[in-house]
Design a protein that fits this description.
- The chain has 388 residues and is of the alpha+beta class.
- The protein has three domains: 3-89, Butyryl-Coa Dehydrogenase, subunit A, domain 1 (Orthogonal Bundle), CATH 1.10.540.10; 124-231, Butyryl-CoA Dehydrogenase, subunit A, domain 2 (Beta Barrel), CATH 2.40.110; 246-379, Butyryl-CoA Dehydrogenase, subunit A, domain 3, CATH 1.20.140.10.
- The protein contains eleven helices and eight strands.
- Strand 2 and strand 3 (150-157) form a beta hairpin.
- The longest helix has 29 residues, at 276-304.
Length: 388
């Protein structure tokens, strides 16, 4: 058996042996718009994975990972999807902050934070977007100033995923008074469990609240909890976004594949699969899923060679557009039944929730408009768009 096939078989066997007992009930749970589902059980599952060495598989071994090649990381995520394993709760720490600290953190930061992420003992959230700085990340206004041996932080972040569950937040803050745009920003690691941090859930159109507002009112963190130099936050933050577009996308596709297969089953059950137009859209959705995989693999290959570049924006446009179209396809497969609730307590059905939540896909994590601008200017070398 080829080495990578042996690794794939090892992953498959472990999942088959361990998604049993209480963890059998976690199958298929979680994901975008569904992070409220059995969070405690999914956290226990992920800690069970960590104890067996199945978190952070792409991290170098010296940092607590398995040092898996790109091919093996792909195999891991594909087998995870095929096993219908639950959506991960440690995604932000493992796939965004961890690679950032490995690339840019100090030895002390790596020693302090990476073991806790790998063991799923500390969860993270991402403090980027603000009311006036969403996709325009350079408009950040949250301020931080050195006060003795600590940074003192004031400001507001918004659309912060999983902030209620997070122990720490990596936040982009303006640390140079009078600075503008991408200059004068710093990348700070901030504890969430303190008096100066308030989290307010945002009720979405789906009725769930995985996004939050976060208010910093004199919140503090140690002076050493800055990644890179003061004022170097833009470079660090954009590198983190590159990691988000790469390895993390494969984990995200665990849910995408599951949703697609569910829509296919729905089409067969309702007879919609006999409609040639809907059948064509199902085929196109399957092709799109393969394109997402290839884009993620290409981005991961770039990450393996160093920090990801602006080409990673292609992955964001690809998955956001594909997932939004899948939500529309699901509603068309349902037909008129998709416009009504099934009955008391009149909650959204699975496909209604997918359709409504996916409306945000082309906006959050960097809008498609901004991603196209990045590709045009930084990849294709086209003239910069005039800025007022």
């Amino acid at each position: 058996m080829e080495p990578d096939e042996a690794f794939r078989a090892e992953v498959r066997a472990w999942l088959e042996d361990n998604l049993t007992g209480e963890f059998a009930n976690a199958r298929g749970l979680g994901g975008p718009g569904r992070e409220h589902e059995a969070f405690g059980l999914r956290l226990a599952w992920e800690r069970h994975m960590a104890a067996a060495g199945w978190t952070c598989v792409g991290w170098p071994e010296r940092h607590g990972g398995r040092g898996a090649s790109v091919e093996r990381q792909v195999a891991f995520h594909e087998e995870y999807a095929l096993a219908d394993a639950p959506a991960r709760v440690n995604h932000i720490g493992e796939n965004l902050l961890g690679p950032t600290l490995i690339a840019y953190g100090t030895r002390e930061q790596r020693s302090r934070f990476l073991p806790e992420i790998a063991a799923v003992r500390e969860l993270w959230c991402q403090g980027y977007s603000e009311p006036d700085a969403g996709s325009d990340l350079a408009g950040v206004r949250t301020r931080a100033r050195l006060d003795g041996g600590r940074w003192r932080i004031d400001g507001q972040k918004v659309w912060t995923s999983l902030a209620l569950e997070a122990d720490w937040c990596f936040a982009l803050c303006r640390t140079e008074p009078g600075s503008a745009r991408s200059r004068g920003l710093s990348f700070l690691l901030v504890p969430m469990r303190q008096d100066g941090v308030e989290v307010r859930p945002i009720t979405q159109i789906t009725g769930t609240s995985e996004f939050n507002e976060v208010f910093f009112d004199g919140a503090v963190t140690d002076a050493a909890n800055i990644v890179g130099a003061p004022g170097d936050g833009w470079r660090i933050a954009t590198a983190t976004l590159g990691f988000e577009r790469g390895v993390a996308t494969l984990g995200q596709q665990v849910g995408f594949r599951r949703e697609f297969e569910g829509v296919v089953r729905l089409a067969r059950r309702t007879g919609a699969v006999d409609d040639p137009l809907l059948r064509d859209r199902l085929v196109r959705a399957w092709i799109g899923l393969q394109v997402l995989r290839l884009n993620a693999v290409r981005t991961m290959a770039g990450v393996a060679a160093g920090a990801p570049g602006p080409e990673s924006s292609i992955s964001k446009i690809s998955w956001a557009t594909w997932h939004q179209e899948l939500g529309e396809l699901a509603m068309d497969v349902l037909g008129a039944a998709g416009t009504v609730a099934e009955g008391p307590p009149y909650e959204l059905g699975e496909w209604q929730r997918l359709f409504l939540f996916s409306r945000a896909d082309t906006i959050y994590a960097g809008s498609n408009e901004i991603q196209r601008q990045i590709i045009a200017e930084r990849v294709l070398g086209l003239p910069r768009e005039p800025r007022g």
